[in-house]
Amino acid sequence: MEGVKHIVAVASGKGGVGKSTVTVNLALALSAQGYRVGVLDADIYGPSQAQMLGVKEGERPQAAGEDKFFPLEAHGIQAMSMAFLVNTREPMVWRGPMVVGAFQQLLNQTQWDNLDFLLIDMPPGTGDIQLTLSQRVPVSGAVIVTTPQDIALLDARKGIEMFRKVNVPVLGIVENMSTYHCENCGHEAPIFGTGGGERIADEYETQVLGRLPLSLSIRELADSGNPSVISEPDSPVSQTFGEIAKRVASEVDGAAEQGPTISFSE
Ligand SMILES: Nc1ncnc2c1ncn2[C@@H]1O[C@H](COP(=O)(O)OP(=O)(O)O)[C@@H](O)[C@H]1O
Ligand SMILES: [Mg+2]
Ligand SMILES: [Zn+2]
User: Alpha-carbon distance 187 to 181, whole Å?
Assistant: First the structure.
């Protein structure tokens, strides 16, 4: 894909587990480590990245030539989302093929500027968008987000199986909302259970990339457009995102090194 070195999908089977929150913080963590990063919001019905990146309503991408758009820029990250192109207050009543068409346009018509990583914030499920992505562009790997809850794990399994079927390597699991940390008294409670990420990582012979608590500040800061990684760079949460970023970068570069090499002779 033009202007993009590595494409990484952030996915899950289930909605509401924190894909968008993980995507934006992972993007900012990679950026803090010196990579050039873009975020493509593939959630056509429920785009989140405009709000999480603090892009003002009504800000529109500039045209790049005849049939392309420049991404918007926020916190040093390039971003493209349906929310930049339509009025997000009106509900979108679209049939499946229109949604896929819109996604393909975002994918094909964004003029990314020399990215090391393009993170794709996926919608929930294992449907058309997921298939379109894996068929249309070379995806280096997928990060699977899940809560430790059984119902989310069930859906995460489907997500992993799907990526395997289309030969996209699963880079690892991010266990989100692992445990609740009370900001008043410091007590911890495993609201969505424990150990789920580990179990599923073992089952599919992949790794837990990181474990994030259920925390008020993660939600508030993402909602405010200034996610944890830039608002509290030294917090344990941001350090965890930093570690996840390092693992993702090394997995993807490692995979690239094992790939075929081309040499030229006279
Ligand atoms: N670790 C967390 N702690 C607290 N709230 C979270 C956490 N992760 C996500 N959230 C909140 O949960 C909701 C769903 O997260 P989101 O990232 O939009 O999920 P998805 O993209 O998977 O649907 C959002 O309101 C978000 O702010
Ligand atoms: Mg989302
Ligand atoms: Zn308490």
Answer: 6
Within 8 A by CB and 6+ apart from 41, the residues are 20, 47, 48, 49, 50, 79, 80, 81, 82, 83, 106, 121
Q: Domain containing 174: what range?
A: 4-258
Question: Number of folded domains in the chain?
Answer: 1
Q: State if residue 18 touches ligand 1 by the CB under 6 angstroms criterion.
A: yes
Question: Which ligand has the nearest atom to the CA of 185?
Answer: 3
Q: Whose CA is nearest to atom 15 of ligand 1?
A: 18
CATH number of the domain to which 185 belongs: 3.40.50.300
Write the pLDDT tens digit of every residue in 154-190.
889 999 999 999 999 999 999 999 999 887 898 889 9
Count of CB atoms within 10 A of residue 59's CB? 11
Note if the pTM is more than 0.85.
Answer: yes
14 labeled binding residue? yes
> Is 122 inside a domain boundary?
yes
| 242 in a labelled binding site | no
Q: Which of the ligands is closest to the CA of residue 216? A: 1
The closest-lying atom of ligand 1 relative to the alpha carbon of residue 22 is 17
Residue 265 belongs to a domain: no
Q: Is 16 annotated as a binding residue?
A: yes
Report the run of H or E that residue 5 belongs to, with start and end.
strand 4-11
pLDDT digits (tens, 9 = 90+) for 32-90: 999 999 999 999 988 999 999 999 989 999 999 999 999 999 999 999 999 999 887 77
Cα of 105 from ligand 1 centre, angstroms = 27
